[in-house]
## 1
Amino acid sequence: MPRLARASVGGICYHVINRGNARREVFLKDSDYEAFLKAIGHASIEIPMRVLGLCLMPNHFHLALWPFHDGDLSRWMHWVLNTHVRRYHQHYHGSGHIWQGRYKSFPLEQDDHLLTVLRYIERNPVRAKLAKRAEQWPST
C-alpha cells in the first residue's frame, strides 16, 4: 500500500529533522557535510526554498525551511535526501537505508516560536558538547 502524501503547505515555516538509521553517524568527515550542503544549494536552485537555519550533526540534521508553494517542501526534501544518499553509497560503496525513516516536519508559527526553534537548531552542537559556542560548529 503506498504511503499517504505529506501535507506541505507553501508560505508556512517548518522545522525538519531526520537522523541516521539506528542512530548511526551519517556525516563521517568534512566532505560529507560539504556534499549535503551542496545538495541543499542545488535543490534550492531547482525548487526555490528559503533556508532560515540549519545544523548538521554527525548522526542527524535540523533545518528551518520556508517553502514558497504547496508541495515544495516534499519535492525539495526528496531532492536533497536522494542526492545525498546516492553520493553516500557511491562514496562509501554501500547500499540500503542511511536515514532512520522519512524526515519529520513540524509547522512553525512565524513569531517567537520560530525564533525559539532557530535558537534550538543553532545551539544543538553546544548541547551535544561538540562545540563550546554555536558559531564554532562549521555546519550551522
## 2
Amino acid sequence: MSQILDIEDLRVSYGKVEAVRGATLAMDRGQIVAIIGPNGAGKTTLLAAIMGLLRADGRVTFDGCDMAQMEVEDRVAIGVCLVPERRELFGDMTVADNLLLGAYAHRGDRKATSERFDAVYTRFPRLAERRRQLASTLSGGERQMLALGRALMGRARLLLLDEPSLGLAPLMVREIFRIVASLRQLGVSILLVEQNARAALETADHGYVLENGEIVLSGPASALMHDPRVVASYLGGNA
C-alpha cells in the first residue's frame, strides 16, 4: 500500500489554548484509521485542521501534495471530504439536491455526475426511495447515509468522518459501520473519529488514542482492542 495521508507535528490553538499538540500520524491508501479519545481531546479539531477549516502549524500531506496553503475548496477538489458530526445537510432541499451539491466541484462533467448518482443510489437504496423527500424528513440513519452519499458524489478519496454513530439507535449504528467498512471496495481511505471506541476499532485497520490534544497510543486496531489502557478507559473494562 502507498501512503495517502501524512501528518507531522500538527498544532492547533484557540487563542492561548493548544487544542492539538504535535500530532503525528499516517495512513495508507484504502485504510480505515480510527481516532478515539474522551470528549474535548481535540479529535474534531484535528479533522477540521486537516480539512483546512482551522489554521494549523505543522505539515499535512495528501497523496504527496502539501496542503499547507490550500483553501478548503481546493482540498475538496483533490478528493478530501469532511462528513461533520452534525451532518450539515440542507433540510429544506430534497435528497437529490443535497447529493447534487456534493458534486459541485465537478459540476462541469454531467455524465460523471449522472454516473455518481446511479452509484450512490445503488449503494444506498433508501436514498433512491426518498430522493424527492426533504432532507429534514429523514431519520437519523438516513441523514447519515445522505451525508456519506454527498461525500461520494464529490469523488472523495479521503473521507474524514466525525462521529458517524452520533444519536443513532444500536441497529442503525451497526448498519452505518457496515457501510463505512464497505467503502474500502471503492478505494476510499477513511479517517474516523468516533466516541464508540469498540465499533470504531472493530471496523478500523489502525488506531490512535488522542488525549488532551496529544496522541498517547497507536497501533493496529486489533491490538488496541486488547491494550489494558484502552480496555479500561474506552471499552468498559472488558477486552
## 3
Amino acid sequence: MTFCLGVKVAGGIVGIADTRITSGSEVSTKKKLFVHQTSNHSMFIMTSGLRSVRDKAITYFQEILEEQDVEFNKLYKAVNAFGNQVKRVAKEDRKALQEAGLAFNASAIVGGQLQDDDEPKLYLLYPEGNWIEITDDGSPFIIIGNSGYGKPILYRNIKNDTSLEMVLKLGFLAFDSTRVSANDVDFPIDVLVYEKDSYNIQEHRYNKQDLEHISHQWNALLNNSVERLNDDWTEPMFRKLEN
C-alpha cells in the first residue's frame, strides 16, 4: 500500500512519502514523490495506487509542464491539468485494469506555491480527477494510502501555528505508527519541507538506520507516559477482582 502525508500550517508545508511497492509477493522501493521547481513555481505530487497509473499520469503531466508551465500562475490550475491526465489514463486503461481484477485507485496529494498564490496550497486529488483543498478551517493534513494508524497523533497535536519542525516530528511519528502496524508501509521515506513564499522545496531521504533511534526513543517515552498515568479510575475495577 502507501503512506503519503501532506500537512499545511501557517509557516508552509511538510510532506512525507514512503517508498515501499508491493506486487504480490514481490517488494521493491520506488519514489512516490515528484517535485517541480522553477523561478516562482514550486510544486510537488505524492501518489498512491497502482504504480503503472501513477507513472503514466506523471509522464503525461511532465509533458504538459514542458509546454504550459508558464500558464500556471496558481496551483489549482496545475492541479486541474494533472487531474486531466489522470482522467486520460483512466480512459485509456481503466477497462483493461478492471478486466484483470485491478482497481483504478490512483489518488494524489498536490502542494506548493505558484507565483500568484498568496500562500502555499495543498490539495487532495481523487481517482476521478476532481479535488478538494486542504484549508486551515478544517483538518490541516491529508493522508493517502494507509491512513488509519497515523491520524490520532496528528489530530491531537497539529494546529495552524505549529512550527514546521514540530510538524515534521509529528509526521514521522504518524509514519512510524503506520509502519509498525502495517506490513505494506516502510522505509526509506522521502521528506519535503516548503517554507511560505520561499519557492524552494527542500527534499531529503531517510533510511531506517537514520531514524531507528527515534522510533526506540518514542516507544520508551510512550511506555513511561502510560506508567505515569493516574490510576485512581482503575481501582474500582480491580477491587471487584479482589472480592
## 4
Amino acid sequence: MAKEKKKLKTKAYEKELIRLQGKLCVLQEWVKAKGLRVIIVFEGRDAAGKGGTIKALTERVSPRVFRQIALPAPSDREKSQMYIQRYIPHFPAAGEISVFDRSWYNRAGIEHVMGFCSKDEYENFLALCPEVEKAIVGNGIHLIKLWLEVGQLEQERRMTARVEDPLRQWKLSPMDLESWPRWYAYSHARDKMFEATDTEYAPWYVLRSDDKRRARLNCITHILGLIPYKHIPHEKVRLPERSRKHPYDDQASLEGRRFVDEKY
C-alpha cells in the first residue's frame, strides 16, 4: 500500500500554484500567437473537484482565451438534434482554449446510469464517439480528456459537507442525491467509457483527486506538458501620459449622485 502523503501546506501550495499559473499565462500568449485550438474536457464523479480544479486553471488567465463551458440540461429542441450538435458551437476558434465542465460524455455517464437515454442511444454513442474525436483531432484541435477520480470515502466526506454547510448547499442538486446510491453503476459506466473511447489520438488521463490541492497542481502541470509552447517576448509596457487638455474637477461633478454606503 502506498504511503499516505503529508498534507500540502497552504503556503507551499499557493506558491506553487502561482508559479504554474504564471506558466499558463505564457501558454496563453503562445496559443494566441500561433492560432492554436484546444479543448480540455473535465469529467468525473460528483464532488470529484472539477469546479475547483477548473478555477485554479482559469482564474489568472483571460476568459477570452480560456473559455469555460458548462451546459445545462438539453432543451426539447436540443434533444431532437444530433447528440454532439449542441457542443460544437462551443468548440474553439484560433487562439482559444475551450474548457468543458462536463461534456458530450454525459451520455456515457449520468444519462446512461439514470436512464435518460435508451440502450441503443448509449451504445451508438460509444461506437461513434471515437470517430467524432478522430475528426476533431484530425482538424488540428488539441483534445485533452481528464477524468477526476475521487475515492468513495472522500466523496462521502465532501457530499456530507455540502449537506451540512449552507455555503455549499448550492452545489448539491436533486440529481446528485439520485446519483448518490449508484456508486458501482457509475464505476461500470466509467470502465465501459474508457474501454470504448480511450484512444491513441484522444486518450483519457486519470487524475486522482482525493487531495484537492495536489490534484490541481498535477492537473495544471500535466496540461502544460501536453501543449508544447515557448515564451513570446514582448516590449516593456509603458503607460502613456494622460492628456491635460480641458481639465476640470471630475469629482465635484459627482456631487448629488447615489453612492454605495461605505460600511467597510
